[in-house]
Amino acid sequence: MANFKIGGFYRLKQESYMKNKLLLFFVLVFSTAALFASGGKDDNLVADAQGSASKKKKAAASTMTEEYMMPSSMPKRTVAGTLAVLDMLDYLEVDVVAIPNTNNPINPKYESKQRIGMPMTPDMERLKAAKPDFFITVNSLKTSLEPQVKTAGIETVFLKTDTYSNYLQAMEYLGKVYGKEKKASEYVDSIKKKIDEVLNKNQKKSPKVLIIFGTPSSMSIAGENSFTGSLVKVIGGKNIWTDTKIKGPYVPMNLELIKAENPDVILRLTHVKPEESSKMFKKEFENEFWSKLAAVKNGKVYDLDNTYFAVSGNIHIKEALDMLENMIYGK
């Protein structure tokens, strides 16, 4: 395997491999992304970008059918475990009795709500004090939180929001739980409509896309099983990382692959210390290696706003698709 030196990063050196694996483990544990995304499930949602528009429409019209536990009765005292969950409940007009701590701006109507601590490490005593009959959080926290909520006797659901399709299924599930099926369907249908529009306008295009996940000290490639990767796939973009043997959302940088594939579009995603990560990207892309790629030559390198492109799904999918359409295809 060749060695490439890119701005001080030796991603293909054998001795760096374990370091990359440890970094990826840290990122996945300390994010709301699912630790092991289910491979191939978005294949039911999008056809090959070279296929017919009718096939694409049919693919986009389906959703996943994984089952969630239904509470014995409609919850009266719901606690949202993450801001992404709170946004879903807010859209469905479901009241909550407690929310997670956050430094991000929230709707003023939630300012007076009881706080249960940070999403990854909620305070079980505060959570119990809220007297919830239903606690909703995300599946990436299931391993760490499930034993605690079981001990506390709190009825809990862990939503899968790691990919586009999983997020829509989670929205439909919440609609059923709270008798808000119409609102949930309106949301899901609006997303499907947007996808159909993008696919129909760009039937014969399949641009190659590289998604880079950056931290202040390293970079990795986001595959189709990442949230952003699933959005790119569902509107017909071709992710340059297609190794189906690796099911996780992120893999170590592979500069030989990037050089060989010569992506048409590069999307840069940050989550950990975004300002520092952005500075790293700027410095790194000053290197000659990147300047030779088609995406850089043609000005098709984009820094994604993590309000819309987080490591797991959020309520802003339609806006994210609008942005991706412009970035990948141009208008």
UniProtKB/TrEMBL annotation:
Pfam family, one: Peripla_BP_2
Domain Fe/B12 periplasmic-binding: 77-331
InterPro entries on file: ABC_Transporter_SBP, ABC_transptr_periplasmic_BD
Coiled coil: none
SUPFAM superfamilies documented for this protein: Helical backbone' metal receptor
A Gene Ontology biological process term: cellular response to iron ion
Protein name, per record: Iron compound ABC transporter periplasmic iron compound-binding protein
Species name: Treponema pedis str. T A4
